[in-house]
Design a protein that fits this description.
Blueprint: H1 8-16, E1 43-49, H2 56-75, E2 81-87, H3 92-104, E3 109-111, H4 116-127, E4 132-135, E5 147-149, H5 154-167, E6 172-178, H6 181-197, E7 200-207, H7 211-227, E8 232-235, H8 243-252, E9 261-264, E10 284-287, H9 290-304, H10 312-326, H11 336-339, E11 345-347, E12 350-354, E13 360-362, E14 365-370, E15 373-378
Parallel strand pairs: 1-2, 1-3, 3-4, 4-5, 6-7, 6-8, 8-9
Antiparallel strand pairs: 10-14, 11-12, 12-13, 14-15
Helix pairs in contact: 2-10, 3-4, 5-6, 7-8
Length: 389
């Protein structure tokens, strides 16, 4: 358990994909509407991935994203995609150069890059040419204008959980989070979700992202929840970093189910070694529609001989959205108005749609852990008229 600090960099990076809105250009909600296309001809689509990165793991991610995009193209009917792959080296400068080259070579839309700072840079470079960018990032600080997020956001997860909790009588929340970028953004997402759902955050306790920091804060968190009459404890902790510690120490400090309903911002199903913890059993977290993901995973493995990277499905979703829109035959299929259509798209991880502010909504199931086993207690809605939205 105490070895989690060595995994901090690895575990947090995929969550945030970088931080910060570097320029106003990619963060404003106003922008050009996107490129017009000829749907009877192959559509030039640029895929920006971190080949050439100094991070060895980025090469694996890049290959998975490219493979998934090509798999999605092979699944399209009646639509032809001219996929052009560009390397960003995982940097802002690389993303700027790649996006500039892509639009100069005729790209009508860009999928990628991976990290938020690179996505912001690509968005700025593509904006002057009226090209929309579907980035793999989930960082809402860089969404808007011509930049749309494919990654599942903290806000989306928090909205689903807090809304479900409020409907089931859990409306007084104590948030327990790390005092770092991921923890602070997660806590903010919970606060905003509560305001939208008729719930309230009655207290919020942060901890330094260290062993001693967590130990020191747990008694305070327990007292805060009790003194503020909380009925819910919302954790932002990552499954391979701070969750093992927090999930053990909070119940030991008196916050136990059923007096307190635990909720988690991260995918607890991905850490079966933790499923015996008192703080996680009967807790609520979200999951995508695994039926769709398993179909994708089986197809990917059959074609490429191995399991897809966890982020690979985002590239498939980007191509699927483009294909669905282009399949209508409309020459404005890739414009902002069409990208943000209310009905959304069928994705690897379930139904999703882009919002006009560049963020997204993704259909998520509510899951819990009972007797060390993951159980779905509220299925992911299949459409945006479902109860989960």
């Amino acid at each position: 358990m105490f070895s989690f600090l060595s995994k901090i960099h690895k575990s947090m990076r995929p969550i945030l994909f970088g931080l910060g809105c570097l320029t106003l250009a990619a963060c404003t909600e106003t922008s050009g509407s996107g490129q017009k296309i000829n749907t009877s001809a192959p559509i030039p689509v640029a895929l920006l991935v971190p080949y050439g990165s100094a991070q060895p793991t980025d090469q694996v991610v890049a290959r998975g994203l490219e493979n998934a995009a090509k798999l999605a193209i092979s699944d399209l009917a009646g639509v032809k995609i001219d996929l052009r792959v560009y390397s960003t080296a995982g940097t802002e400068a690389g993303a700027t150069n790649a996006a500039t080259k892509a639009v100069n070579e005729g790209a009508k839309i860009i999928i990628g890059p991976l990290y938020a700072s690179a996505a912001n840079a690509a968005g700025v470079a593509a904006r002057a040419r009226n090209v929309n960018v579907l980035t793999f990032s989930n960082n809402t600080e860089i969404a808007g204008g011509n930049v749309f997020l494919l990654g599942n956001t903290f806000a989306n997860t928090a909205d689903r959980l807090v809304s479900y909790g409020a409907k089931n009588g859990k409306r007084k929340i104590t948030v327990v989070h790390a005092n770092n970028a991921a923890g602070n953004l997660g806590a903010d997402a919970v606060r905003k979700a509560a305001a939208r759902s008729g719930a309230s955050v009655v207290s919020s306790v942060s901890y330094d992202f260290s062993q001693q920091g967590i130990i020191s804060a747990m008694a305070t968190a327990s007292q805060s929840a009790k003194s503020n009459s909380a009925d819910t404890v919302f954790l932002t902790a990552g499954v391979d970093s701070d969750l093992p510690f927090v999930g053990q120490l909070l119940p030991e400090n008196g916050l136990r189910f059923p007096d307190y309903q635990y909720m988690g911002l991260t995918r607890w199903d991905l850490a079966p070694q933790l499923h015996a913890m008192a703080g996680l059993n009967n807790g609520w977290f979200t999951m995508p529609d695994l039926n769709r993901y398993n179909q994708f995973s089986s197809r990917y493995k059959a074609v490429y001989g191995g399991n897809p990277h966890p982020l690979a499905g985002l590239a498939y979703d980007g191509i699927a959205a483009i294909g669905a829109l282009a399949g209508t035959g409309a020459n404005d299929a890739l414009t902002t108005v069409k990208l943000t259509q209310g009905s959304g798209f069928a994705g690897v991880n379930g139904t999703f749609r882009f919002r006009s502010n560049g963020t997204n909504q993704r259909a998520l199931a509510i899951a819990t852990i009972e007797n060390k086993l993951v159980k779905i207690i509220d299925p992911a809605p299949s459409s945006f008229g479902g109860a989960g939205f």
